[in-house]
Amino acid sequence: MDQTHARALEAIQPFVALATSNSATSPRFVANIVTNATSASQTYVFAELLETPTIQALAAPDCPAEYKGYLKLLEIFAWGTWQEYQETPNLPKLSAEQTLKLRLLSLLTLASTTKPLTYQALMKSLSLPTTADLESLVTTAIYANLITARLSPASTPPTINVTSVAPLRDVQPQSLPKMITLLTEWESRCGEVVTDLETEIARVKVNAQKRHAKEQAYRERLEDAVERRQAETARKGGNGMDGRAADDFDEDDGFVSGDNGESWSRMDIDEGSGVGRGGSRQTKRVVGRKT
Fold this sequence. Notes:
Largest sheet: 2 strands, antiparallel
Low-confidence stretches: 240-251, 268-291
Helix content: 40-55%
Radius of gyration: 52 Å
Oligomer: single chain
Structural class: mainly alpha
């Protein structure tokens, strides 16, 4: 699409050169420039030609009435539509080449502003009598790289699905203040978004610093606790018994001391194994008595 725009700019240059030459002295000559420029196959942008003094001179009061309409005709080719041409009186008649060109340019505008782009709406806006004429026009636009589109005649309703449009329509001067306002509002919204993003970034950084400080403090407390635990363990002798020696505990030798100084073993041995005759358990004998 950018190449199409570059070719269109290049194609209009010979006509701009004619309009700025010393030969462009009569309204008739200037009108011929407009006719030839709008009929050429690769010319789709006309703003540069419109800005030349000789073209603008067609609006002068002393310009013959038969040539005044050529300025309006060139403006319609620059940013207007086929329907606008049909509704504007006293305009020059179009040749077959001009008719095709204006319909192609109008198709670009309609593809950018009308959704969905139905067969019926296009045929009405472009004054095309049959669907075959419409499909031929759309096919020409596709092969000329003016649009990227797909015909859907079997859909309900039949539509043309346009995915891209070449930037070939000029901007109407009266629309510039509105465009400037829209761009200013867009710039303001972009500034607000950037400010919000910067605020969010600052908040994330502050939270990250706080989290890092908290983790650092936790690690320091953990290391201090480990060091204190190790020091305490070393102070207690490393045996986990609060410094008490092993001989502080009474060793059980298996004997019991009596009141008279005698001692005996706490192990009892039965005289017999099991229950004796008569169903009574036999008497236990204490062994291991020592004096």
